[in-house]
Structures are given as C-alpha cells and as structure tokens.
Amino acid sequence: MLPPRLQGGRRSVLAAGVAALLLAAGCAQLPSGTRPQGTDAWSGRMSLRIDSQPVQTFSALFELRGSPETGELSLTSPIGSTLAQLHWSPGEALLKNGSETRRYESVDALIEAATGAAIPVGALFGWLAGRDDRVPGWRPDLGQIANGRLQATREAPSPTADLRIVFERS
C-alpha cells in the first residue's frame, strides 16, 4: 500500500522508484558467470515504514544488482506487476515506470524526493553483505543476516523510519 502523500500521479511513480531503489523482483537475473566482476545481487521482499503524520508504508518484491556506484533495482507487487525499475550510475538515476522515465542526479536524490526520507543506498549494499557500515542517524541490525533478514532503523533526523528486508543473495 502506498502512503497517502504518494498515491496518484507522479508520486506513485516516485514511490515505486523508492521501492525499486531498495529492492525488487520480476526482472530476469543475469546467467551465472555473466555478472560483471565486483557486483552483487540480492532478491526478496522489503518494507519501509516512515513514522510521519500520517504514517507512510510501502512494501514490494525486489531484485537489486550492482554496487552503490552503478546498479539497478526492480520492484514488483506481490501479484507480480512491475512497479518500477531503477538504473543508476555516477551523476544520474533513472526511474522507469511503464513508458515514463524520470531523471535524478543520484539514487539518494530519487529516494529523498519520493519519501521525504534519505535512505543510505551505499550502506544498504554493505548491510546486505553483512558489513556494519555506519551512517549517521541509522542503526542496522545485522543479527539475522545469515538467515536472510535485515532491519535498519533511522533514528535521526525525524521522522523515524524502519526498513525491513528478507532476501537471498544471488
């Protein structure tokens, strides 16, 4: 379910991109051995809760590939509809939803525009890999990483946010 402030029009496209930024599913995976060296891939499901007024929530299936510098994220609904695809490289982030493409200077700019909350994409790659990468205001819980579960809480700045991911590494 999309947050009320993201429902309809361009905000729903942005919300889908945020989910895409965080992870997605429904895109074909690279065949074994063809992934560029130095890139990672994860798939699963994720949810984001922002404790704003009103509370905003988002959940999706995802597939995330690449690195903090260059990558792609696909998001799908629980019934398999593609919500969004996100591709990024230095200086640019593209959010594709159907025939519409929106451009941003970075993945971080895309996420903040869509949610009002900055989500640390660079640290997300580290957290998924089991590294306790530090980001001011965020507290990752890596205690269940070996079981394919990640939780990260943004304590500052307000509003607080809770990111939960259940994943498999490809």
How does CATH name the architecture?
Answer: Clam
* Backbone CA Rg: 15 Å
CATH topology category name: outer membrane lipoprotein receptor (LolB), chain A
Strand content of the residues, in percent?
35-45%
Reading the helices and strands in chain order gives HEEEEEEHHEEE
In helices, the fraction of residues equals 10-25%
N- and C-termini, Cα separation: 27 Å
What structural class results from the helix and strand content? alpha+beta
Lateral strand order in the biggest sheet: 6-5-4-3-2-1-9-8-7
CATH level 4 superfamily? Lipoprotein localisation LolA/LolB/LppX
Shape category: globular
| Average pLDDT figure | 78
Classified by CATH, the class is Mainly Beta
Structure description:
The chain contains three helices and nine strands; from the N terminus they run H-E-E-E-E-E-E-H-H-E-E-E. Helix 1 crosses helix 2 (107-115). It is an alpha+beta fold. The protein has a nine-stranded antiparallel sheet with strand order 6-5-4-3-2-1-9-8-7, with helices on one face. It has one domain (4-169): Lipoprotein localisation LolA/LolB/LppX (outer membrane lipoprotein receptor (LolB), chain A, Clam), CATH 2.50.20.10. The chain has helices at residues 9-22, 107-115, 121-128, and strands spanning 40-50, 56-66, 71-76, 82-89, 92-97, 100-104, 138-141, 149-154, 161-169.
